[in-house]
């Protein structure tokens, strides 16, 4: 997680990112783009995920697991909405940064060290370690 050097902060993320930067203070000053879009938006526990390829089973960790987990949750939510005759979710980020944040499990401990720093620390609210948190399917 971190901040983009290519994309500016989208309007739906402005308040959440500003709150994090205020809390961060001068930590890692000059080592990241404070005007860049923050990422990730959400997180998933992508650890020890079972994979089967050509009959062989093994576990892997990381964003390559978390991304499809989030996509699966959204797919299941869309399935339920469509079954009830409602529209699918569409572009989620404005929803997630507003009312949807209450349906996520905020992660407040942990960090992402790297680039000769201690990295960023997970905090209450959005942070560049776990975003807004992990999905709570029942609440979503």
Describe the 3D structure.
There is one protein chain. The chain has 140 residues and is an alpha+beta fold. The chain is built from three helices and six strands, in the order βαβββααββ. A two-stranded antiparallel ribbon has the order 1-2. The chain has a two-stranded antiparallel ribbon with strand order 3-4. It has a two-stranded antiparallel sheet with strand order 5-6. The longest helix has 21 residues, at 63-83.
Distance from first to last alpha carbon: 24 Å
The residue ranges in which pLDDT falls below 50 over 5 or more consecutive positions are none
Level of helix content?
25-40%
Radius of gyration, Cα only, in angstroms?
A: 17 Å
* Largest sheet data: 2 strands, antiparallel
Count of β-strands: 6
Indicate the overall shape. Answer: globular
Overall pLDDT confidence: 93
């Amino acid at each position: 997680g971190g901040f983009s050097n290519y994309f500016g902060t989208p309007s739906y993320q402005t308040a959440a990112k500003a709150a994090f930067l205020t809390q961060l203070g001068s930590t890692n000053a000059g080592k990241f783009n404070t005007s860049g879009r923050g990422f990730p938006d959400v997180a998933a526990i992508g650890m020890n995920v079972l994979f089967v390829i050509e009959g062989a089973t093994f576990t892997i960790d990381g964003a390559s697991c978390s991304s499809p987990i989030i996509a699966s949750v959204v797919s299941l939510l869309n399935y339920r909405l469509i079954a009830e005759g409602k529209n699918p979710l569409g572009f989620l980020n404005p929803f997630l940064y507003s009312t949807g944040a209450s349906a996520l499990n905020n992660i407040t401990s942990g960090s992402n060290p790297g680039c000769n720093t201690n990295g960023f620390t997970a905090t209450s609210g959005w942070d560049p370690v776990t975003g807004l948190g992990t999905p709570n399917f029942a609440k979503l």
